[in-house]
Amino acid sequence: MSEITERSPQTVSPPGGQPARRNPLGSVFGLLARQREATVFVVAVVLLLYFGIRYNSTFVSQTNLANLLSETAAPIIIIAIGEVFLLICGEIDLSAGFVFTFAPFLMHYLIDFYGVPVVAAIILSLLFGVVVGWVNGFLTVTMGLPSFITTLGTGFILLGLTLTTSHAYPANVPASSVGIGRWIGAAPWSQFIWAIVLTAIFYVVLTRTKWGLHTIATGGNALGSREAGIKTGRIKYGNFMLTSTLGALVGLQNAFYVNTIDPSAGGYQPMFYAVTAAVIGGTAMLGGQGTILGAFLGGIVLATLINGLNVAGISANPLDIVFGLAILLSMIANVRLARLRAAGRN
Amino acid sequence: MTTEPVPGEAQPATTADPSGDALRVEHISKRFGAVTALHDVNLHLGQGEVLGLLGDNGAGKSTLIKIICGFQPPSAGRIILEGQEVTLKSVDHARSLGIDTVFQDLALINELTVYHNMFLNRERTRWTLLSNRSMRRTAQKELDRIGVDIPSVDSEVAKLSGGQRQAIAVARAVTSNAKVLLLDEPLAAMGAKEGAMILELVKDLKSQGQVSIIMIMHNYGQALEVCDRINLLQHGEITFDKLAKDTSVQELNDIVIEEYRRALAERQRSA
């Protein structure tokens, strides 16, 4: 599984190692077996090809692809990035979707009621995500609550906060923010470009930086990590703050994209989709293991199903059955794989 | 089999401590409420020496190790590292001073490679990115130097055997420039072959003379095989301190059997 192992340049061959002469087909299978992302990659390609060929003109149209990748996939992917970091260190964030809901309202209040300049209001709304993440970290790490409960609580509070302050009515996106809004999410491809850039950045953070390594270590062996001097609490605080901030970003993007600030946007659904994307991408909820690339591909798979069934004119009602089965099957595969790896230890 | 430690032989006398001891523990006691786990423990560890710390379960070995490794402070007493009195604030702090501990759980991360484990929390980076190539090369070199045999430094630790994992944990401590190494039952739950590998590793380290080692052990035969000196901890006190060559499995056994007899007699009296 370890992305770190497999992706690092193989410059030093182990002493007595064989010179590289592999069967190319064998190495493809080897890659599939070793790479957690391989399965979900294959599924994503097959789904895209299926809908692309079967419903060519409608599915492959620029509008539909922008819709699929930007409106549907990007929010899942971006929140999933944070969830992957949390799942790896053994935590989860159920509140991210409610930061999504509240962040654009906060921007609207700051601009329209308090006269805060647009850029400052956007930054403050993102910082609000940082604060929520800190509170989640404080309750989980410092107070010792399970993160499931912590974020269940903070999620409700955020929802209540949104409904109370907005009187449960949608609001208009502040006119002065529309220009910058194009960069954040209103332009057709902007959300997907954000998703790609963030995936690339956090792929590197997870696989090539101390933060990523220590996140894996924290989830893999918390006591051992502390004995090695890793501040595991700080790692968790940081990853909660990352996830909430990404939640806030996605909330702003969505508001700009649909050009309205809606109290019913966000909520549990994007968060659960994000966790689903992470799991079918190969992130086990067992701690210590996870992949950003897998979550990205998982997001594409979910969005393709949502969008493709819609294009095909099939009722979306059975979709959740498919998602449920996908989660269970991926998790079974993850667990089996972990057992196989453990068995192959000696 | 054992060699008598000559202070200052393995290494030139670079320390301020005239005794040449790597570590001295003076009048250490530890109380937990009404319970006294350790009273007035005195222990010294010569430069390059391997000291075997034996004792019954509950004799206070773990408490003593936890104090020396910085995990918990003593109720009274001093710790002197290379002639300097030190107050250990944490395991991290002790490690930064050169006292490194290999706990029984080994503190390895199964999901990470051997070389990432060896550099855990001491990672080499360049422009904030991990210098994997450099870490891998050094890890391989260090493992070769101290004679640890593993399939590859790229292996995930989960795939290694118990002995190999122990060896990695020891190698990690040694390569972090530890002066004093505490090994908490390194041979626990290990087969003969694996155990022999660890004993061999400790002997190699001893011959290189750069690190002084305290090993908690249960098996007297193995202790006499590898240690220069044996200390026995009973009821929170060091009751026995002899060079390994001056004692025998028989003598150690007799002491422990004596203790069992006394415990048995006490039970019968109170019954």
Notes on the protein architecture:
The complex is a heterodimer of chains A (346) and B (271). Chain A has 346 residues and is an all-alpha fold. Chain A is built from 16 helices and two strands. Chain A has helices spanning 3-7, 24-34, 37-54, 56-59, 62-88, 96-112, 118-142, 147-166, 178-186, 190-208, 210-220, 222-227, 232-258, 268-280, 292-311, 319-343, and strands spanning 171-172, 260-261. Chain A has a two-stranded antiparallel sheet with strand order 1-2. In chain A, helix 3 (37-54) packs parallel to helix 15 and helix 7 runs antiparallel to helix 13 (232-258). The longest helix of chain A has 27 residues, at 62-88. By secondary structure, chain B is α/β, with parallel strands linked by helices. Chain B has eight helices and twelve strands. In chain B, strand 11 (229-234) and strand 12 form a beta hairpin. Chains A and B meet through helix 11 and helix 12 of A and helix 2, strand 8 and helix 4 of B.
Topology:
The complex is a heterodimer of chains A (346) and B (271).
Chain A: H1 3-7, H2 24-34, H3 37-54, H4 56-59, H5 62-88, H6 96-112, H7 118-142, H8 147-166, E1 171-172, H9 178-186, H10 190-208, H11 210-220, H12 222-227, H13 232-258, E2 260-261, H14 268-280, H15 292-311, H16 319-343
Antiparallel strand pairs in A: 1-2
Chain B: E1 21-32, E2 35-46, E3 50-55, H1 61-68, E4 76-81, E5 84-86, H2 91-97, E6 99-102, H3 114-118, E7 125-126, E8 129-130, H4 132-145, H5 162-175, E9 180-184, H6 192-208, E10 212-216, H7 220-226, E11 229-234, E12 237-243, H8 249-270
Parallel strand pairs in B: 3-10, 3-11, 6-9, 9-10
Antiparallel strand pairs in B: 1-2, 1-4, 4-5, 7-8, 11-12
